[in-house]
Every structure is written in C-alpha cells, then in structure tokens.
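Open question from group meeting: does this chain pack into something compact, or does most of it stay loose? Before anyone orders reagents, we agreed to write out a predicted structure and look at it together. Recording both the input and the output here so the notebook holds the full record.
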Amino acid sequence: MPQMAPIGWLSLFIIFSITFILFSMMNYYSVTPQTPKSQASKKYTASPLNWKW
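Structure tokens returned:
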C-alpha cells in the first residue's frame, strides 16, 4: 500500500476542517430559539411617584 504524501494529509485535514466548520455553522444558525413571554413584566406596573416634599 503506497504511503500518502504530507501535502495529501494537509489537504484532507483542510477539507474536513472546513466541512466541519460549515456544518456546525449551518446547524447553529438554522434554529431560532423561541423567547418565552414572561408574565413578570405585566405584574410591575409603573405608578406615578407622588413625592411629598
């Protein structure tokens, strides 16, 4: 079985690295998380502050 030249290993490493990075980026950016609507913001209503001075 013939041995592979170092440039062959380098090109394989670069191709697989680019493929892995692109695959990871596509998986990361393909999902948009849902932001839950919190009920806490409705509890605190802004009341006018009546200072006594």
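Observations to bring back to the group:
Helices lie at 6-30, 40-43.
The chain has a mean pLDDT of 81.
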